[in-house]
Amino acid sequence: MDDLCLRMLDRFQHDLPICAEPYQAIAEELGCSEEDIFQRLEQLNQRQALSRVGPIFDHSVAGASTLVALAVPEARIEQVAAQINALDEVNHNYLREHDWNLWFVLTGPNRAHLDQTLIHIQQQTGLTPLDLPMLTAYQINLGFALGKDSQVPS
């Protein structure tokens, strides 16, 4: 990973520009071309070091969300994970070492929509979802300092 890539990741873990040309704005701030930014993002993507680029919305303002777990028989993991991943409401899908082994976040416009999605998941998979709605949000700074001149708040 070169210096430009480290600076890009360090600087834009937070406060991604919200404008018509965000990658151009990133490039201007870092003193490079937009193509340089696209190349670094593509390299990170090819190395599977980047999961996504985009905003994180406060679910309580933008709609509703809940954490869900399924106890999936080992022989069905790939099949059920594919069914879950196909749903527009699903993000953050993870396999865990536990009886409740498939964990994901459901998001939607309201709680009623989530409830309908949970019913759909149960009907589709034959498995009963464990619904774990958030009671209290605790804000953390999920940022990592990358380099001696890091701009990530500590």
UniProtKB/TrEMBL annotation:
Q: Which residues form the Siroheme decarboxylase AsnC-like ligand binding domain?
A: 64-130
Which InterPro entries does the entry link to? AsnC_trans_reg2, HTH-Siroheme_Decarb, NirdL-like_HTH
Q: Which residues form the Siroheme decarboxylase NirL-like HTH domain?
A: 7-48
Q: What class of enzyme is it?
A: lyase
Q: Which reaction does it catalyse?
A: siroheme + 2 H(+) = 12,18-didecarboxysiroheme + 2 CO2
Any one GO MF term held by the record is:
lyase activity
Pathway annotation from the record? Porphyrin-containing compound metabolism
Q: What is its EC number?
A: 4.1.1.111
Q: Which UniProt keywords apply?
A: Lyase
Q: Does the keyword Cell inner membrane apply?
A: no
Give the protein's biological function. Involved in heme d1 biosynthesis. Catalyzes the decarboxylation of siroheme into didecarboxysiroheme.
Give the family per the record. Belongs to the Ahb/Nir family.
Subunit structure, as described in the record: Probably forms a complex composed of NirD, NirL, NirG and NirH. All proteins are required for the total conversion of siroheme to didecarboxysiroheme.
PANTHER family reported in the protein's UniProt record: SIROHEME DECARBOXYLASE NIRL SUBUNIT, TRANSCRIPTIONAL REGULATOR, ASNC FAMILY
The protein depicted here goes by the name: siroheme decarboxylase
Q: Which organism is it from?
A: Denitrificimonas caeni
Top-down, what is the taxonomic lineage of the species of origin? Bacteria, Pseudomonadati, Pseudomonadota, Gammaproteobacteria, Pseudomonadales
